[in-house]
Amino acid sequence: MARKPKRHIPQSADELTAAWFTAALAGSSGGATVTAVDHERLGEGIGFLGDLVRCSLTWSDNAETLPSSVVAKLPSSISANRALGEGLMAYEREIIVYRDLADSMGIPMPQYFHSDLDKHPAPWINDVVRWLMDHLPVRGVAWMIDRLLKMPESAMRRFVLIMEDIDDARPAHQFAGGTLDDAYPALVLLAKFHAHHWMNQALLDEEPLIWGLNRTPKVFKATYQNNRDDFIERFGEMFEPEVLAKMDSVQDDLGAMVDRLVEPPWTILHGDYRLDNILFRDGGDIVVLDYQLLLWGRPGWDVAYFITTALDSEHRAEEENMLTIYHDALAGEGISDYSLEQLRTDAAVTKAILAHRMIGGANTIETQIEGRDESFLDVMVRRVTGWVDA
After folding, report:
1. Which of 74, 83, 113, 304 could be disulfide-bonded to 347 (CB atoms 3.0-4.6 Å)?
2. 289 burial type by CB count under 10 A (0-12 exposed, 13-18 middle, 19+ buried)
3. Rg of the Cα trace of the chain?
4. How many beta carbons lie within 10 A of that of residue 371, not counting itself?
5. What pLDDT sits at residue 362?
């Protein structure tokens, strides 16, 4: 019996052809065909686990009712980044969010048009890997991570996601850093998202790929152990010795710290709520992108993640005001079992963990942006470590 031919899943802009779009969008095109496609690579540092391509579409007819452009998301063209995305199940998770959960997410997001992903050849292996990550010594976990990042592309699954092109909104720029005028409304929207999913056990029961913040802390201990010396040699002059001592203390206490961040009350977290994933419309509306790292835990994680990656530490005097704005918005949505003091404590814990992850991620993911002397990592290290409470 002849083997069924492998379906085509584009993995580069050149493969996003008119014929492919005609087939992919057939269910919503009313019989129209795509006759031409123009491609434009999007973002500098926006998607480290995925590449974004704006595709301008020319239609045979009904053009006034069909999208003139869409955005295609593909696996990262950088092998190590793609391997990390595969290991995190990031591509599969994002398809689930756009395809199955968009109507219940409680946050403005682009319209979903199409997706495809190779079937996992051995889904049971994820449970085995997690067991090993939990039970091996840190050195053994480090060896496994090194093997993962060197995974050949031929062993990785193909992935594509087609979504709405939000072309009427202003993208903020992570590299340059944000402003308080952007931070305040973004925090209010984040509070509404968290309130919408407060203690949402039904979603966790439905979607096992939404992991907890405390999943496999040894992974981060292993990457910290591997990268610490090289990191200090490269970045040590950026921060005070007290900050390094704080990160070393996190290495010792990480398990207990992340366990604290999944204690009730918890919510669904965006997981990568940063400026490059937020679009601002002139009327004040916000659209949020990138759901590859959706997870669950205490809301202070998303809040501190956003503040410390979006704003330079010169804004530290405004931290209390930002926390209050978020907390007032959360309370305004009817959430009464999470105090401002709990938020302050969780944000402080999160800031320390994020600085620790800066070291762990230094040699794990490629962040160099073409044409810039500084990498995205350079900027993030300076920004995030500047917010740590030494």
Report:
1. 304
2. buried
3. 21
4. 6
5. 61
